[in-house]
Structure formats: C-alpha cells, structure tokens
Amino acid sequence: MFDTERWAVLAPLLQAATAGRDLLDDTIRRLTPAAVARAVADEIKDIKADVRLDLRFDGKITSHLTTGAEVVIALDLADAVRGLYGTDERPWPSLAVRTPEGEVDPANPGAWFRARTGIGPAVDAVLSALRPGSEDLGSLAVAFGSDKWGDLHWYTQHYERHFARLRTEPVRVLEIGIGGYDDPDRGGGSLRMWQRFFRRGLVHGLDTTAKNVTGPRLMAIQGDQSDAEFLDRLGRELGPFDVIVDDGSHLNEHVQISFHALFPHVRSGGLYVVEDLQTAYWPNWGGHPEAGHGTSMGMLKSFVDGLNRAEVGDPRGGGSYLERNISGISFHHNIAFVEKGLNEEEGGPAFLRTLC
Ligand SMILES: C[S@@+](CC[C@H](N)C(=O)[O-])C[C@H]1O[C@@H](n2cnc3c(N)ncnc32)[C@H](O)[C@@H]1O
C-alpha cells in the first residue's frame, strides 16, 4: 500500500554518509554505484548549468547534468555523497574541473578571458548544490511557498529552536497537510522546505488529495488524517518518525485522532508538532473558548499533568502510554511541540507532601 521500496537506496546511504570512508565505500558497492550516482544526480537535477558532472567509483565513471558540456566537474562518488549528506566541512580531495582551452588570439588576448564568462558561476552552482549550507528556515519557507513564516504564521522561529539538534541527523519526517487543498498540482511548499532544512531527511506528506509533489527525498501519500487504522499502518510501514507535524484539517477531532494514532510511531527523542491551535478556541472547528476537554488544546493541556504524575503516584508503575512516553511539552502562540521520551523521573520525597 505504501511505497516502502522508495527509500531502499537512500535510507542506508544517508546513514553511511557520516561513517568512515571504508564503510561508505562498502555501502556504495552494496547499493550499486549506479543507483547511488542516480541519487546524487537527482539532488541537483534542477540546476541549470552548462556543465557535465562525472562521478567516479572503482574506476568507472557515470556522467550527469549536461552530458555534452565542455566544462567537466569530476568527483569521486563517495566524496559527492559526503558533501551532500555528510556533516563535516572536509574539502573534496578528488575534485577536478576541466574547462575548454579555446584559441588565443595574440593580438587580442583579453577575448580569451571574456569567452570564459559564465564558467565560474556555472561550476559554483553545481558545487554549491552538492554541498548544501544551513539556510534560515524562515527564508526557506518563503522561498518554497509555505505559510509557516512571513505570512499568516510565525512558526519557523520555534521550529529552528526545537529542531536544531535533529537538523543534521538522518531523520524521517511526516507532515499532515501538503497544501493546495483539492488541486493535485498545488502545495508541497513545506515538504520542499523540510527536504532542504533536513539535508539527511526523508520527508513524507499526507493529504486527502493525491498530490503531484516530487523531490529526491519526498514522498506524497494520499489519505485521511481522521482514519486511525490507516495512520497506524502508515506508521508501521514508513516510520518510526523523528518528526511529525500536523498541519492538516485543524479540526479538533481530527487533531486528536491523528495524535493518538501516530504518537506511538514517533521515535524516542522525536517530536510531534501541532500547528494552528487557534481552532481549539473556535466552536465552528470543534473548539471552545475555554479550550478544555474534547478540544485539541484540552488534550495537550492534559499531558502537562501526565508529565508530573510521579507527584501523585509511582512513576514506574501504571500510567497510560502517553503519560509514560511524553517527556516534554512546549507551547507557543498557536503551536505546540510534544517530545517523546521516557517519563519516569522520581517524584519529590514523601515527607515533603505533608509538610505544609
Ligand atoms: C494548511 S494546508 C497545508 C500547508 C502546508 N503544510 C504548508 O505549510 O505549505 C492544509 C492541507 O491539509 C489537507 N487536509 C485537509 N483535511 C485533511 C485530512 N482530513 N487529512 C489529510 N489532509 C487534510 C488539505 O487538503 C490541505 O492541502
């Protein structure tokens, strides 16, 4: 039902990119150099540059981008993988760039230099794409057309803070709500934003509409966030996820169904984020001005008491699944971050409870 084969090459490659060179080479051999070279080429296929990229591995070369171009960037495949998905700032020891010699007119040598105009920017465009930097998430939201910053919402500042420790990890991300509503060709802004932000991330989007949103590390899934059975299957087949973001219908009932179905599929140390919590206060969306029991905010508020259950009982015995596995909650305007982790800290000493 889900395209679980989609990540067969990428998932192990993203892991191996930060390993030692021998392990990375072994992984490339196991996945096949041709498949790995395709994954690398897929990351930079939108670069418009009259440049050929030659990727070398075990003495064999595959050519990519503009295969007939005179300007050639040659790189070991493992170096390219490390540049794209690695985390260190090591140079590319195998990098070589061949440019056309051209004819030099001794009477007008300046013409030789002028003829080379554009080579530098073209080579730089390819090499920059092969070593993505750490762009600001707000700028990425605006660039890719998500409303998480710059218009309507101001969420990316909070995401930056809470996701900082995950940014360079090989994370699995799921966002409910791809955007563009019933238009298959619209939306995908935030998925593209996450794909860039998490350079080692595999990004999944869920929407009721089948979406034509593609990317080297993107998967669009059609389904309904109010279908708990479907969500559980999705979690079992494509999870566990390090990050889940609910930016779907924002109906209070849906938010709660999704949370209960998907939170078990968040990895320990991961985060479940709920956006647009203003609807918890709006009756037309299933909310209430007090945002109590039955609303999405009411559900999240109840987790706060769960965090401190050791003060009224035994932290190691009993307690619901959520009480035992939510280790932190952060609230900001209209957005909450729920942290998954063991909640088994001891309560205060018994004598203190009766002291006052
Ligand atoms: C606000 S948009 C998402 C915007 C996107 N996350 C972004 O930041 O660019 C909400 C999306 O949720 C989808 N949606 C609405 N109800 C849904 C449901 N029950 N299950 C899944 N997706 C739903 C809509 O089709 C719409 O595309």
UniProtKB/TrEMBL annotation:
Gene Ontology BP annotations: methylation
GO molecular function: methyltransferase activity
Keywords: Methyltransferase, Transferase
Record-given protein name: Class I SAM-dependent methyltransferase
Organism: Lentzea miocenica
